[in-house]
Amino acid sequence: MTLLPRKIIKKFTAILLIGTFIFPPQLLAQLANGVSIDVKAMSLGNAVVADINPGISTVYHNPAGLTRLKERHFEVDQFVIGADLDNDFYAPEEYELFGLEGTGFNTYDPTVPRDPVVGGDGVGSGHTNKLALYLPGFGLQQWVWNGPTLLPPQIGFSVNPPGSKFTFAHKNYMSFAGNFFKDAENPGIFLAKEATVQRYTYFSPAVGYEINDEWAVGAGIQLSHQGFYIAQHNRAPNLLIAVVEILQDAFACEFDKPIGQRRDPLQPFLSICQGNIGPWDDVGRIDIDMQETLSPTYNLGVLWEPTDWFSWGASYTSEAEMQLKGQFLMDYTDEWTAFWNGFNASIIGAITAAILGLPRGVPSESGQITMDLTMPQMFKTGFRVRLTPDFTLSVDSTWTDWSQWDEFNFNFDRRLELLSTARLLSGLVTDTSLTLPVGLRDTWHYGIGLIHHVNSRLDVRFGLELRTSPVGKDVFGPIPLGDMKMWGTGFGYKWDKRTDVSASLFYMQSTDYIPSNTSCNLNCTNLTNVIYNPYAGLDVKFTSRIYGFGISFNRKF
């Protein structure tokens, strides 16, 4: 038998191992940012930076607005959030990968499709509506039922001393949250089976200062907990594994028999039949759990109201540089482990593995992991216009520095089999570290809100927010979310002279279709693509729907 040249083996092996290890990095950025902070804001498309009748959530939107809160206020916001996340996969005509027909069936069992994502008919789909919360000290926790999730209550207070131009306030809130679970049979588990990126601000002291009747400024500090969790199944649709499957088919490997009882035609010289691996097979699951318990930021704001019918506001929120710390666990499938155990037990396999540092066939690897992460800075500006005595219009624009997420750096506390081999090809990999290109871009998104002042006690609100995805089409995939629209409506009711009640309903939707070979973070088939690419050769469609209800209670005391 003629062996492949050593350089080719190194290259193909590195492609294989990087492809099996990489997990989704881009973390639901645009979906999660700034949702479920403020009931009023959600009904107005988040166009509230120039609001002159704000709630205590203005500590987040624009701390200068605190000067409008006279006396002392107590506020509670409660949200219920639901989501429907769908992934659909389509095999194009003549779907094949490195000479293997993707819509065919395995030779050892004609009832098992080569690619289980699309099955024998070339179409696959998955759905989840299971949301979760990240609890410090406990990790990611699924809600007790499927469907809408009850978020933790958000409680705040403000104090304006009599005769003072200063107003002090605090409120806890969840500024960033994207948490979900998928069932094991969902073909989208290769884009994360369980995941969260959650930022919870537990202490946010802020102060507003009234310069004069027209101008006000404000500043605040936010102390937050940052959670990061991902559990994902991995597969490696690349040339080396395709070659292995072709050889296994040619040798008629007896995969209908239990592991350890299968015939190997070339034993003891070369073993390739002890484990069934192919470009579409699940090779293992990686779990990563990291957090930062104290992550500070600050924000600044300004509010200008030259007339009673017009106001303008702006605010800036700083970035937060963190080093997340936690644990990782890589569990390999029995078939993957058996293949490498058998390969290393053969003469040629043992020699090749020793030279190239190939996997030994350990069932799992675990240890400590750290990751440098910067939550991006943000700038908002907007205006409010009283169009008529009955209607008020507000418009906001928000810039977010998502280009901070150009790459992610993961550092492990030990030498890993996968990384040791992957570094043969990629300069982004060492024995103990991995640099993953992400390539997000800065975005502007826009909100518009309209208030109908029905009478002195009742306001009816409407809003639309246009959210631009930071993910380019050429790197689409790990974030299954493109441009998104959010519609909101709600009301504010003055219960009595000291009590205000608000409620809101909102709905967000995004749909994206990614044809095969258009995103090399998702579905490319080129030989040099060594980054995360689980659906090589498939057309992929993502549909995300997020909806929610919120109610707020604000009382002077």
Give the arrangement of secondary structure elements:
Blueprint lengths: L5 H16 L7 H4 L6 H5 L14 H4 L10 E19 L5 E2 L2 E2 L21 E6 L1 E6 L3 E4 L6 E2 L3 E6 L6 E6 L1 E9 L12 E10 L2 E5 L4 E20 L4 H12 L33 E24 L2 E8 L2 E13 L1 H12 L1 H10 L7 E12 L2 E11 L2 E10 L6 E6 L4 H6 L10 E5 L5 E11 L4 E10 L16 E13 L2 E16 L24 E18 L1
Antiparallel strand pairs: 1-4, 1-7, 1-8, 1-26, 2-3, 5-6, 5-10, 8-9, 9-12, 10-11, 11-13, 12-13, 13-14, 14-15, 14-16, 15-18, 16-17, 17-20, 18-19, 19-22, 20-21, 22-23, 23-24, 24-25, 25-26
Helix pairs in contact: 6-7
Question: What descriptive keywords fit this protein?
Answer:
two-stranded antiparallel ribbon; Porin; 557 residues; 12% helix; mainly beta
Description:
With 557 residues, this protein is mostly beta strands. It has a single domain, classed as Outer membrane protein transport protein (OMPP1/FadL/TodX) (Porin, Beta Barrel), CATH 2.40.160. The protein has eight helices and 26 strands. It has helices at residues 6-21, 29-32, 39-43, 58-61, 239-250, 334-345, 347-356, 417-422; strands spanning 72-90, 96-97, 100-101, 123-128, 130-135, 139-142, 149-150, 154-159, 166-171, 173-181, 194-203, 206-210, 215-234, 284-307, 310-317, 320-332, 364-375, 378-388, 391-400, 407-412, 433-437, 443-453, 458-467, 484-496, 499-514, 539-556. The strands form two sheets. It has a 14-stranded antiparallel barrel. A two-stranded antiparallel ribbon has the order 2-3. β8 and β9 (166-171) form a beta hairpin. The chain is elongated and about 90 Å long. Residues 1-31 have low confidence and may be disordered.
